[in-house]
Each structure stands twice: as C-alpha cells, then as structure tokens.
Write a structure and sequence with these properties.
Length: 189
Amino acid sequence: MHAVGFQHEQTRTDRDQFVTVYYQNIQSGLEYNFVRYNQDTIDHLQTRYDYYSIMHYPMNAFSRNGRPTIVPRQAGVSIGNRNDFSATDILKINRYYECEDTTETDVDETNPDCEETHPNCSAWAARGECSRNPAWMLPNCPVSCQQCRPSSSNCADDNVNCARWASNGECTRNPLYMRTSCRQSCNVC
C-alpha cells in the first residue's frame, strides 16, 4: 500500500488508543518506524484502526531483544500476520482514489428489513454518517446506507477474500464494505 500512498497503520494519529509501543525494545536507530504522524500527514479516511491491515507491523517488529515492540490494547488480537489486504485496506484505497462502488445490487423492495426509520437518512448518508456512525445508521437507515438485502439471484461475494475476512470478524468491524461486497459470507442474503 506504500505504492498507492499509505503509511503503516501504527503511524496513525490515534494509534495510542489501540496499541502500546515499547521503545526500549526497539533496535537503536530504527525508532523512526514507530513515529506517530499528525493529521496533516495522514488521513484516516473515516475508518477505524485496523489491526488486520496488511500495513500493520507484527508485535516484535525491529526488536532488539526478542521482546514485543508493539502490543494491541485489545485482548486476543493478532497483528502483523497478513498476506493480503484487509477489507478496511480496500475501503481506504477506494475512498482515497474516489473509486465508485461498482457493485450492482437489486434491492428487494418487499424486504421488511429494508425500511428507513427516519426521514433524514439520505441526507445523513450523503454526509458520511453510515461510516462515522454505523451502529445507529446501518439498522435505522438501511436503504441510504446500501444495507438492503439483494435479491437471492445476486447472493454472491464480490471478492475472493470475503470468506476469510468474514471469519476474521470483518462483517461487524467493517459492515459498510462487507455487507455490500461480501453478501454471501456475511449472510446478508
């Protein structure tokens, strides 16, 4: 992702909320690899911290003594073992380069789960609230947030990695992308 303009995940401005960096364990002269950038340098593109990013260092990156240099604050999370993009990596690239969503889905108008609960849903979705506030927006504004179940004839994943991402919990961590692009793996249809 460096080639398309991205830095390592642990250089985000908000990284200290998600990981602890142990500078005393980092090889001398390599501390720059753990510098946290300011908001003028990094745009999070309205995404959450992604432990599963291909751009995340492993726990012992640049260790001088075999001890961890970076440890997740969330228990049970494994970092730095990716061989492929996470769903959030793909979402960030698409947002950064303003790629249009090329997934075409047919909305099942008879689906009872596909109803807006508030008249301002479309305006809020246009302002980016589906990704900023997914816990409220996705269940209450499913049409505007493109969460409606597609017809059964379109029940397929758009990416070969969907099943793996779903098993890693991406359906709940990144619902805006996953429920649209990984419909079958996330049991949306």
